[in-house]
Input
Amino acid sequence: MSLSNTSSMDPQPRRHVGARTPRREDSRLLRGQGSFVDDIDITGQLFMRVVRASVAHARITSIDASAARDLPGVHLVLTGEDVRELGPVRLEELGYHDLFPHLEEYSHPVLPTDRVLYVGQPVAAVIAEDPYLAEDAAELVEVDYEELPVVLDPVEAVSGGASLHVLGNEPASFVKEYGQVERAFAEAAHVVRGEFRIGRHSGIPMETRGFVVEPVPGRDQLWVWGAVHVHDCRRIMARMLGMPLTSIRMRHTDIGGNFGVRGGVFAEHLLVAHAARKLGRPVKWIEDRVEHMVAIAHAREQVHRMEGAFDAEGRLLALRDEIWHNHGAFLRQAEPLVSDITAGMVVGPYRIPAYRAELHAVITNKTPLAAYRAPGRYEGTFARERLFDLAAQEIGIDPVELRLRNVLTASDLPWEPGLEIAFEPYLFNSGDVLDHMRKALDAADYEAWREEARRLREEGRIVGNGIGLLMDKAGLGLYETADVEVDGTGRVRVLTGASSVGQGIETVLAQIVADELGVDPQDIDVMHGDTDLVPDGVGSWSSRSTVLAGGAARAAAQKALAKAVRVAGRLLEVDTTELQATSGRIEVVGKPDQYLTLAQIAERWDGWSARAVGDEPGLHASAVYLDEHMNYPYGITLVQLEIDPTTGGHTIRRFFVSTEAGKMINPLTTEGQIIGAAAQGIGGALFEEFQYDEQGQPLSTSFMDYLLPGAGEVPSVQFFVTEDAPTPDNPLGAKGLGEVGLIAVGAAVAGAIDDALGGEFRVRRIPVHPQDLFELSREAGER
Output
């Protein structure tokens, strides 16, 4: 029964959704009262250290672990033969196994028995009494290698590089197409072509990976701390360990950053669990930063060879793209999901009558990759927006005007060209990109930016502006679960299948439930990350938490309120049509002195009272929320950048990002998400890259070599958010906003560099390092 369809359950007045409620998580975390995986210490625990491959591609000729095993205090040394029965780390099943039946052949081994395929791959594991002893013992494990040819470039891997797998170096490929592409190119007045590359970088969370597993004495059960997506992790671990699902309990910890790169199951997770189960003692593993740099899930690295067909007025007739996506040595997590999303989202917020993309998911001798904030969108947006800048130059149209002529408008909606993304038809059905773009340009006063850059260039300074348009896809992830329970003191507990990874989900869910029940968010506790409390769920990724977890929490709260009205009718001896819910209580219409609070209802509806009439005691309800369609937030990014030609240094003078939010649940957390994402986008555009030498040796294994933007490099972020087009696909009207802040940053930075250096098209690859800026400046000065 819908709350909005009965007089007894009129919607509560909205007091909290849309308010700038401070994050409830911060009070605990900022006081150092968080509980992270390294804070978990269990009596009698042992410690694991991983022996990692020192070469990029080699046959293992021998492993001698005898010296390590003989060291006092060492309890176990594991090699590939010891864990052969576990098999490789299974991929999440999202439907790709049906498309590519041999997908599991490319999944990551727990430990190898014959070959290693990247530097940093786990080769053995040592479990000892303390972490220092474990590290000392790990150094005693001797591994002999017969080195093999290395392939690092994804194009070369497909076109004739060394074969890394029996089935070849291309585990998956995608073709996305609609419309008459060949005809459009044949009839085009202008055909613009370019190759664009996105370098390999990743999320660098404050907290590295860690895992603690405690076997339950007398039972073949495991308690586990450290997983990000607890339900998926439990399912895969149970299957690989040959245990019932109910025998593994994932326990809650705080998570010091994820951004996608720590999700899923890693080989190290299985090693810790296997060792704990075998030894009957708790085992703990915390990776150091060097391990993190070579073994965490990397991201990005793609090559796009893109072509655009334009008419004489600069209107896009068709877009064609061939993409090589470097997955590294194995497939991880839910791959090839990112490849699928890349090929589907290249079109962005544009009216493109015909489109064809062919993507090669490629294996090389680099660290495996997975999703990282805005996976596929950051990469594809860079290539597409660079093509638009190149087209503007070749056709002779202002780059802003070229975009204005080609973006989607309200009259184009619903825009459903026949494209599928992650097994879901692409349907853009709420918004007006042209209207938003004009509003955003006005809000930024972009013409003043241009005039300022012209004036500064006349003074001899190297200053330019760049623009990038973005479209995200949000709300992917099947379903989400929630429970809402009110106790006899009035305290409300929300259980969610989502995970808290720094995005403020506890705050947002409390706001949503508070408005449904008419209570204060401070009276609500949000619980997550414990599979005994929440038996099923999906987790937090793909900008889905507010929409799916919020939708489930909202539905559960509505069901709990409906029960409160029903029970209050019995307790007050009135018909439910005479009752209304308001401010955390159920009262008789027109008689506000006759009421019961939710706490009173929960207290009075105890086991005896409820079961006497065949009802469930207490005041709680469960719900599962499914979203039929993803939603598509869009926006614009503007960058003004100044280059120092003597050093290759740069200063971002202005930074502006906009988005159409549909409905902001909490403007404060929205702004935080945008600013944090912008910083990561800047890192990928100008600083961060995992580089390798010709032998596949990683060159970026510390913060001395892997550059991160600090407080001095991240500018003040100006943001502009509209709520003009609530999505009809969820009852909140909200669109996912966790990734919009970085999607177009690489493109806008590249455009700003070109503009600063005289307008000639130069930047075809990101990141643009200081040395690159120095060389580009010198080349521009010589002309």
About this structure: The CA atoms of residues 639 and 655 lie 5 Å apart. DSSP finds 21 helices and 29 strands in the chain.
